[in-house]
From TrEMBL, chain A:
The keyword Transmembrane helix is assigned to this record: no
Positions of the AP complex mu/sigma subunit domain: 31-118
InterPro entries, A to Z: AP_complex_ssu, AP_mu_sigma_su, Longin-like_dom_sf
Superkingdom of origin: Eukaryota
Family matches, as Pfam families: Clat_adaptor_s
Keyword annotations: Membrane, Protein transport, Transport
UniProt cross-references to SUPFAM superfamilies, sorted A to Z: SNARE-like (SSF64356)
Gene3D superfamilies to which the protein is assigned, alphabetical: 3.30.450.60
Organism this protein belongs to: Canis lupus familiaris (Dog)
Protein name: AP complex mu/sigma subunit domain-containing protein
UniProtKB/TrEMBL annotation, chain B:
Organism ancestry: Eukaryota, Metazoa, Chordata, Craniata, Vertebrata
Annotated source species: Canis lupus familiaris
Annotated localization: Cytoplasmic vesicle membrane; Endomembrane system; Golgi apparatus
Family matches, as Pfam families: Adaptin_N (PF01602), Alpha_adaptinC2 (PF02883)
Domain of life: Eukaryota
Membrane-topology descriptor: Peripheral membrane protein
GO cellular component: AP-1 adaptor complex; synapse
Protein name, entry field: AP-1 complex subunit gamma
InterPro entries to which the protein is assigned, alphabetical: Adaptor_Complx_Large_Subunit, AP1_complex_gsu, ARM-like, ARM-type_fold, Clathrin/coatomer_adapt-like_N, Clathrin_a/b/g-adaptin_app_Ig, Clathrin_app_Ig-like_sf, GAE_dom
Keywords: Cytoplasmic vesicle, Golgi apparatus, Membrane, Protein transport, Transport
Cross-referenced SUPFAM superfamilies: ARM repeat, Clathrin adaptor appendage domain
Keyword Transport: yes
GO biological process, one term: intracellular protein transport
One function term, GO molecular function aspect: clathrin adaptor activity
């Protein structure tokens, strides 16, 4: 079976971990790496398998945060918590089943902004 | 009564307001009960809100499986908000193990076909996350259609959905391979990114696809070149690098295409060098691209100059202030150290610097890399560095470092003295962390270096005098003092400072070790034995030693007590033998005896196994074991039973009845396998007893390797009229399964005219519940049977 692609993001409030972790998942050991970035009190963690370029994922995390920043106007942890569905939409625009789709901020936010406008009117 | 449902925001606020875990659970349980009731009532207006709340609760870790059917209903609804939440719920709550997931196939199909882009996007997203093999097969054509239609929003998603489909159902690669060529010409980066991922997936799965796509390497090179050389473009640049994600993907694909393929690798060489030199490395994005380039260079068939460039880039990474880049560089260098050893060696000083890292995972990587870089020319310097690291490093790394140093010392030690010194230093610094066989290794090493006995014993004595807590050190020191105590006491040794040691001091020290509560029982054993040996080495009288030994005769530890009692007896009753018993030990062979034992047991097993088949090759081993007296290859024919009724020819009985088991036949005739069917094998073995030239003894052996027994087995034989045949009773009529005890039957054939032998066999038996009858003539009878 093919190795699992970069897993979906997990938002948690506390993490102390080195960069490499081996996971026990349903009895099998899977070799996962955790790549995380800390933004004040918020950690964004991405789990990837061995073949991914760690630095590129690092960059991707920052890209994601920048998109959130633009949408929420200086995003904070509370913004994410209270607007979880919107965050999911943004994430789904950027990443499909673990593969990066779109990294251009304008294109990612376009459908969401249209939706917002429609629901307001 | 309909309780008005709360908004998601309110729920979140309440959950966050809960002060304790129990309170939170209470709030959530109450809300889940509301949600369940609402689902039961089937309220379509607020369903999406309920599901949204349920998903939030699910994210916190509470069970949410009762929402699965609601996802289906929401997906089927025409409103976008419903669909949105429904699909999200499907992605989060459903997976292949649930039966419900198949039910959304139809909804997805409908949504894919109607033209609203956002809805199509949603459906594709869900399909690529939870799509099972059946779903993929059903919807493949829809996805392919979407691949080719003009809107870029849906297209980029369709391409990645194709990636997922290929992962689930590899046969679909045939559908998705042709559009790739056209998709590569797109300018939209999202589509390009997806296409590259798709091609990567195809190539990883099938070598035929790999060959097919090696033709597009020039095109890929062109795309990458444009990316690298065009200036700043607002659309895609991230900290000065234009679309690093696309660059990284292309580089990864080039890596797969160029692996083991000279032609593609050549095409890429220039481009890789260009990327490596032109990329701006001040920010992380550039470093990411550079890192991928390095990985690609290492994997394809690149020129040596390029490989050196790659290693140098990694070396530069090591000097970067960002910890992550250093980490990544260390890991990659470790992968490369085997293949490009000399190139990595050039960065040895930087690697050694990294040993001083504060971060534990970095210093661990640096340690592994440093150990891999030790070779015979730099071993002294490296060991020096590693030993200073050992003194200051964290406890969990100590064990690895110590064993690493010891291993390196063993492989590359320039002199024995240096080797002993190194091990000594490791033992004093990190004695408790060394592996168990370090003691044995060191004693063996010292024992073998005769010229260094005096030196070693002095060094060890001084070390022991300072500190008796490190057990391996104490054990080795005690052993040495015991063996070479005389060398310790006599005068000076040129290599160390003059050390005047009195007998009393030595005995004091050993007694201290014996009495110390830090000493392990094994260490005490060493010390006691050393004391005993000293009784012959020292010139003074042995009263003190005798005293100590008799005290330990009543020690609570069994091992010590036994030793002490035995030594006591040695003093009292066998004093005349004491000197001989306590002589210097001969050098112990390291590991040699163990290997020989294993070899011997293997040989014994081999010869036992070969007793069962009756092949002439087994004869040598059989001779070795000498179990059968004298047969070489021929099976043991059963002793002749009472002659079969009828056909007893008089002159047969006149022949001297020479049992073949008593005398070895002059020439062994090879055995013949004459029949095989469903695991039942029939072998013939021939014996021509020397005293009777016209007689041929054939033993028919029936072996059953199948699962079921063969029952009612009867074998009959027929020969031409000029021969005389006597068939003796078989050993049994059941051939047991799984190669159990074979059935044998003896045939005696008299051939006075020395005519060519022809033999026909008829078998009847029951096997697997069916009765079988076989009649066949034995061909290929060797000439020796009748000549």
């Amino acid at each position: 079976p093919p190795p699992p692609p970069p897993a979906a993001q997990v938002l948690i409030t506390e993490l102390q971990a080195p960069l490499d972790i081996t996971f026990e998942l349903s009895g099998k050991t899977l070799d996962f790496k955790l790549i995380y970035r800390q933004y004040a009190a918020l950690f964004i963690v991405v789990g990837v398998n061995g073949t991914e370029n760690e630095m590129a994922i690092y960059e991707f995390i920052h890209n994601f945060v920048e998109v959130l920043d633009e949408y929420f106007n200086r995003v904070s942890e509370l913004d994410i918590m209270f607007n979880l569905d919107k965050v999911h939409i943004i994430l789904d625009e950027m990443m499909l089943n673990g593969c990066i789709v779109e990294t251009n901020r304008a294109r990612i936010l376009a459908p969401l902004l249209i939706l917002d406008k429609m629901s307001e009117s | 009564m309909v309780v008005p449902s709360r908004k998601l925001q309110d729920l979140i606020e309440e959950i966050r307001g809960a002060k304790t875990q129990a309170q939170e659970r209470e709030v959530i349980q109450k809300e889940c009960a509301h949600i369940r009731a609402s689902f039961r009532d089937g309220d379509p207006l607020h369903r999406h809100r309920q599901l949204a709340k349920l998903l939030y609760v699910h994210m916190l870790g509470y069970p949410a499986h009762f929402g699965q059917m609601e996802c289906l209903k929401l997906i089927a609804s025409p409103r976008f908000t419903d669909k949105r939440v429904g699909y999200l719920g499907a992605m989060l709550l459903l997976d292949e193990r649930q039966d419900a997931h198949l039910l959304i196939t139809n909804s997805i199909k409908n949504d894919l076909n109607q033209g609203i882009q956002v809805v199509q996007g949603l459906a594709l997203c869900t399909l690529s996350t939870v799509g099972s093999a059946e779903m993929c097969r059903d919807l493949a054509t829809e996805v392919e259609k979407l691949l080719l239609q003009p809107g870029s929003y849906v297209r980029k998603k369709a391409v990645l959905t194709a990636v997922h489909m290929i992962r689930k159902v590899p046969e679909l690669s045939n559908i998705f391979l042709p559009p790739c060529a056209q998709l590569l010409h797109e300018r939209h980066h999202g589509i390009l990114l997806g296409t590259i991922t798709l091609i990567t997936e195809l190539c990883e799965r099938s070598p035929a696809a790999l060959k097919h796509f090696q033709k597009v390497v020039p095109q890929l090179v062109q795309i990458l070149r444009t990316l690298v050389t065009t200036g700043y473009s607002t659309e895609h640049s991230i900290s000065g690098v234009s679309d690093p994600f696309l660059q990284v993907q292309i580089l990864r694909l080039l890596r797969i295409l160029g692996r083991n393929h000279e032609e593609s690798s050549d095409t890429m060489n220039d481009l890789l060098a260009q990327v490596a030199t032109n990329t701006d490395t001040s920010r992380n994005a550039g470093n990411a691209v550079l890192f991928e380039t390095v990985l690609t260079i290492m994997d394809i068939r690149s020129a040596t100059g390029l490989r050196v460039l790659a290693v140098n880039i990694l070396g530069r990474f090591l000097l970067n202030s960002d910890k992550n880049i250093r980490y990544v560089a260390l890991t990659s260098l470790l992968r490369m150290v085997q293949s490009d050893h000399s190139a990595v060696q050039r960065h040895r000083p930087t690697v050694v610097e990294c040993l001083r890292e504060v971060d534990a995972s970095l210093s661990r990587r640096a340690l592994e890399l440093s150990l891999a870089l030790v070779n015979s020319s730099n071993v002294r310097a490296m060991t020096q560095e590693l030993q200073s690291f050992l003194e200051s490093c964290s406890p969990d790394l100590r064990a690895d470092c110590a064993s690493g140093i010891l291993l390196a010392a063993e492989r590359f030690a320039p002199t024995k003295r240096w080797h002993i010194d190194t091990i000594l230093r490791v033992l004093t610094t990190a004695g408790t962390h060394v592996r168990d066989d370090a003691v044995a290794n060191l004693t063996q090493l010292i024992g073998g270096a005769q010229e260094l006995h005096a030196y070693s014993v002095r060094r060890l004595y001084s070390a022991l005098a300072e500190d008796i807590s490190q057990q391996p050190l104490v054990q080795v020191a005690a052993w040495c003092i015991g063996e070479y105590g005389d060398l310790l006491l006599e005068g000076s040794c040129e290599e160390t400072e003059p050390l005047q040691v009195e007998e009393e001091d030595v005995l004091d020290l050993l007694e201290k070790v014996l009495q110390s509560h830090m000493s392990l029982p094994a260490t005490r054993g060493y010390a006691l034995t050393a004391l005993m040996k000293l009784s012959t080495r020292l010139r003074g009288d042995n009263n003190r030693i005798r005293q100590v030994v008799s005290i330990y005769g009543s020690c609570l530890d069994m091992e010590l007590q036994q030793r002490a009692v035995e030594y006591n007896t040695l003093f009292r009753k066998y004093d005349h033998m004491r000197a001989a018993i306590l002589e210097k030990m001969p050098l112990v062979e390291r590991g040699g005896t163990q290997d020989e034992e294993i070899k011997e047991s293997k040989e014994a097993q081999l010869s036992e196994a070969s007793l069962v088949p009756t092949e002439p090759q087994a004869s040598e081993l059989l001779d070795l074991l000498d179990l059968l007296d004298g047969t070489s290859g021929a099976a043991q024919p059963p002793p002749p039973l009472e002659p079969s009724p009828g056909d007893v020819l008089v002159h047969l009985l006149d022949l001297p009845c020479d049992l073949p088991s008593a005398s070895p036949p002059p020439a062994s005739i090879p055995n013949l396998r004459v029949f095989e069917r469903e695991g039942l094998q029939l072998n013939l073995s021939f014996v021509r007893p020397p005293g009777t030239p016209a007689l041929l003894l054939i033993t028919i052996t029936a072996i059953n390797t199948s699962e079921a027994d063969v029952i009612h087995f009867i074998c009959q034989a027929a020969v031409p009229k000029s021969f005389q045949l006597q068939l003796q009773a078989p050993s049994g009529d059941t051939v047991p399964a799984h190669s159990g005890l074979p059935v044998t039957q003896l045939l005696r054939i008299l051939n006075p005219n020395k005519a060519p032998l022809r033999l026909k066999l008829r078998l009847t038996y029951n096997h697997f519940g069916q009765s079988v009858q076989e009649i066949f003539e034995v061909n290929n009878l060797p000439m020796e049977t009748w000549q």
